[in-house]
């Protein structure tokens, strides 16, 4: 299965706002920890190793 | 050769007697021979692996010489967790009952993060197996019982204080130069099995090495004797309040002894940390936390260790075969060291026996190396992953580790990611050249290459348990009852292959065994002498079985 990179979020602006809100008032360290937990939760939801590996690669490739 | 029995070791010997015991170094007539005396097989190293291999070969009728550079068994508890598969192998070698009677059975593990219980797991959630997931037993007991068993075999000779100091490989064997208290002698071995431990002198004599990853961390083992009411479970702490930022492992052994394993970090001073005055406060703090009160305890043994995950590139070098720690090393998380070594031994024993008898080609021994190299890779992979989880080596690795542990409090999926050691399971030899690929459809775990699963057998069967009924002398066709069964069994037994017999074991096509083997009436499994599946069919003819047997003997 191919990683979906075309628009797929049902409400992109709402999601983005919720993501930033989730980090509100957290010290940087706690934010990093939250992100790590979030990655693990989402990874479990996706489940498929092939998709996750594509996502890991896409994330690496998009870095500056 | 009955040194062990004569010297007073028995299945009733206590820990002190065993550890204090010095075997007599007896001068062998070989030492005065004019030309090197020839031996079919010489095993070097009388640890759990070398002893198991020597006993297995001797039970198969080989004349075996076992050399050890020392005259004592293991000092200190060392390897303490013996897995189900190891116990099943030791059953075949005649020591399983004694070891299990002495050992502490366990199958439940608990994982703590801080002072909080994250979750518990059960390693053997189903019944219908003779042996438990694990027993804990000090290594010296395992070695002593194996030595007692070895002494019962007249064709197995152990020479203590025989140190191999020279090794020369030739076309028809290996010449070994051996130092003894009475001086040096040489002997000739058609095959040599190097079971001489992680610092293997034989590996060094051949100029070989084991390479891999060395972990920069130190661990303290403290064996303490105390009257504490912990259950017989494996308790693992990540970052406990009594030992912050490190891990701790608690295990129960026989004789009221508890193994506690403290991660110390790389900067710890190994000599300092071994001192009782350093250990006592650590144990005391732990007991107060774990039990809620102090207990009195005695320090029994302590050791500070580091480890590496590595292996030799090839386990076979001509007529020298490497097994156990000599061939591969793992971290202790997962109990994959001694357990995988005993599986090496059982893989090598039947193959060496058949090759020495001229019943199988030399190529069969290549499959020892390829199968057990594959198993070592699996063990190293599991052990490396556990080590990376337990002792994260970077900031981000630590971040994800702690995120996993935080999530595991509430979410089942994260518990599956927590890795406090994936405990030893026998390797399934899926890609073995000895396997006959399936032509019929099967479900379940008993694929070609898998170690046979145990199951209870009904009254009237040759044994109460399937693995006991299988034994391990030779190949067995497991025939699930169905039409035409009697004729097929006759044909199989009448000479499926030239001189290597296949015996048949008929089982009902319903019941737990049939379920575990996904069997229907007429299903047949061909099992190797080491109880691994090498072929299976829904309705084979005798020629199928003969062809699979040739393949499993590396004849085809």
Layout of strands and helices, then pairs:
The complex is a heterodimer of chains A (64) and B (556).
Chain A: H1 12-22, H2 28-46, H3 49-61
Chain B: H1 3-6, H2 15-20, E1 37-44, H3 48-59, E2 64-67, E3 81-83, H4 84-92, H5 96-102, E4 104-106, E5 108-113, E6 116-122, E7 134-136, H6 139-151, E8 156-159, E9 163-170, E10 173-180, E11 183-194, H7 201-205, E12 210-226, E13 234-238, E14 247-253, E15 257-263, H8 270-273, H9 276-291, E16 297-312, E17 316-317, E18 320-322, E19 328-329, H10 337-356, H11 363-390, H12 395-408, H13 412-417, H14 466-470, E20 475-480, H15 485-493, E21 502-507, H16 512-516, E22 524-527, E23 533-537, H17 542-552
Parallel strand pairs in B: 1-2, 1-11, 2-8, 5-13, 11-18, 20-21
Antiparallel strand pairs in B: 3-7, 4-7, 5-6, 9-10, 10-11, 12-15, 12-16, 13-14, 14-15, 16-19, 17-18, 20-22, 22-23
Radius of gyration of chain A: 13 Å
Q: What can be said about the biggest beta sheet of chain A?
A: none
Please, how many helices of chain A? Answer: 3
Number of strands of chain A: 0
What is the mean predicted local confidence, pLDDT of chain A? Answer: 97
**Mean pLDDT across all residues of chain B, rounded?**
94
Query: Could you spell the SSE succession of chain A in H and E letters?
Result: HHH
- CATH architecture title of one domain in chain B: 3-Layer(aba) Sandwich
- The amount of beta strand of chain B, in percent, is 25-35%
Instruction: Return residue spans of chain A where pLDDT drops below 50 for at least 5 consecutive residues.
Output: none
Estimate percent helicity of chain B.
Answer: 25-40%
- Which regions of chain B contain 5 or more consecutive residues with pLDDT less than 50? 1-6
Q: Largest chain-chain contact?
A: A-B, 8 and 11 residues
How would the global form of chain B be characterised? globular
The protein's oligomeric status is heterodimer
Distance between the termini of chain A: 27 Å
